[in-house]
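Each record in this resource describes a single protein on a pair of labelled lines. With that in mind, the following record should read easily:

===
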Amino acid sequence: MEPENKNEDHSLIISIKDLYKSFGSNEVLCGVSLDVFNKENVVVLGRSGTGKSVLIKIVCGLLKPDSGTVNVLGKEVEKLNDKELRELRLQVGFSFQSSALYDSMTVRENLAFPLVRNARHLSRKEVKKEIESVLNDVGLSQTINQMPSELSGGQRKRIGIARTLILRPKIMLYDEPTSGLDPITSIEINKLINLVRHKFNTTSIIITHDLTCAKSTGDKIAMMVDGKFIKQGTFDEVFSSNDERIQNFYKYNFINK
């Protein structure tokens, strides 16, 4: 094991305090608090419909909370104006569950789009270099001229992550990164999430109900049940709990230790 770097930055990157969010009479988040530190991978784990995806949409300002605070990179998200929010979002990469690629564009065009839109100072040669570099990072250089419809589900996930990484965000938000993938492809995506953190020095929140993904990628697990975190800690700390709700979730998603 490598010696710990005494100068490593352990600053607080995302701080969520007492967050509430309802849609009509449906209470989705009920007093959620979470701290995410520099270069930490935090997994928000829970069954579908527990409020996990709503949480990260609030983190990046796509939704507003009813009450509570979200501080990202030292800025209180709900107090930002439109210009400040756009600037913050350039530092936050959002990997959507659907990959969110443009079907009418090649892989090259999909990756060029955020650069041309947000980094207009780059020359055509620099854009080409960035595209080739990030495709190499996700192991899909050969797909550069393909259409999304020609890619497998796992390849689309990788290209979606690459398109997010091309702006070099400080934070990555992954929404169900292994959803709909076979076990072997899921393992590849889990490895990519860890590679992204190592190579790009990202801080990440990973939303999932996949225990293998949680165990493979998470430094810290926050277990969500009915819009609340009922346990936070390492994977082993969370699942050594005697809480019946946690044990039932583990049994439902059985994996080999």
About this structure: The CA atoms of residues 245 and 251 lie 10 Å apart. The longest strand covers residues 12-23. The mean pLDDT is 90.
